[in-house]
Specification:
There is one protein chain. By secondary structure, the protein is of the alpha+beta class. The chain is 38% helix and 17% strand. It has eleven helices and nine strands. The protein has helices at 8-22, 39-42, 78-81, 85-88, 117-130, 143-149, 156-164, 170-173, 189-198, 219-239, 250-259; strands spanning 32-37, 53-56, 68-72, 89-94, 100-106, 136-140, 179-181, 204-207, 211-216. It starts with 7 loop residues before the first helix and ends in a 12-residue tail after the last helix.
Length: 271
């Protein structure tokens, strides 16, 4: 079999988490990623009949039975993943009972997946129904997005409009807008349920005063969604300290969206 450390999906996790840490989005052990893998691609690197151990998930994910994920570990620092992926990452398969994860590789120090795995699995189930190509759920704490949470109304239409009006590419990158949740206790099934509900409409969900969840078909798309929100939030926060002279008008946002042939939230515009 091939060396698992050379697998494209392991390399993607190493590079992306290192970049997120470098950007200051994932302090200490903040942030987590789950990446759904094809059985055929994993089988090139691992014996799928060799289950190292089983770990209860605390959630019934029967819809995902047999699905395989590479997931960041609980209490693990993104800055350490690139140097020691086998300790800080794990590859799991949802067992036949739907409530247990079978560890196929990783967490070699006896650890386990992120405490927010139930929230990830809930969002995976929703996004797969919306778009079968959505394979990644990414949670992180981008600095300016969080800062914007403290000075801006936490309401989907107004928050989305502020982002769209700050950076021309925003309506192109996330024409479906941004979902917003109030502050909630993290690591619970309650916040997972609330996030999954929002994921029925949005690929991006703000966790008030905490961070953001993103869903996408691959690492570039998912990271790029969050990166674009963060850039717009940075511009918003810088500009908010001075009188605003110019803005992107609603009719101009409409023109951009229609020029790209996008299905966008027209109800978020005042036309």
């Amino acid at each position: 079999m091939k060396n698992i450390l050379t697998a494209p999906f392991v390399e993607e996790m190493r590079k992306t988490t290192a970049n997120m840490y470098r950007l200051g989005w994932d302090e200490r052990n903040g942030g987590n990623i789950s990446y759904m893998l094809e059985e055929s691609e994993v089988a090139e690197y691992l014996d799928l009949n060799n289950v190292i151990r089983t770990i209860p998930t605390g959630f019934d994910a029967s819809e995902l039975i047999g699905k395989i994920f590479i997931v960041t570990g609980t209490g693990k620092y993104f800055k350490n993943i690139d140097a020691d992926p086998e300790t800080n990452l794990g590859i799991i398969r949802i067992a036949k009972d739907g409530t247990t994860a079978e560890l196929l590789w990783g967490y070699k120090d006896g650890g386990k997946f992120t405490s927010e795995l139930p929230a990830h699995l809930m969002s995976h189930m929703v996004r797969l129904k919306k778009n079968p190509e959505n394979r990644i759920i990414m949670h992180t704490h981008p600095t300016y997005t969080l800062a914007m949470n403290f000075v801006h109304e936490l309401e989907e239409r107004s928050f989305t409009r502020s982002l769209w009006k700050t950076c021309t590419e925003c309506i192109v990158v996330f024409p479906d807008g941004v979902g917003v949740l109030p502050w909630m206790v993290c690591g619970t099934n309650e916040i997972g349920i609330a996030t999954a509900k929002k994921m029925e409409e949005y690929r991006l969900v703000i966790w008030g005063m905490h961070g953001i969840y993103g869903a996408g078909k691959d690492m570039d798309e998912t990271f790029g969604l969050i990166e674009t929100v963060e850039k717009a939030a940075q511009l918003y926060m810088i500009a908010s300290t001075m009188p605003r002279v110019n803005t992107i008008e609603d009719h101009e946002l409409k023109a951009v969206a229609e020029s790209f042939g996008l299905k966008y939230r027209a109800d978020f515009l005042d036309l």
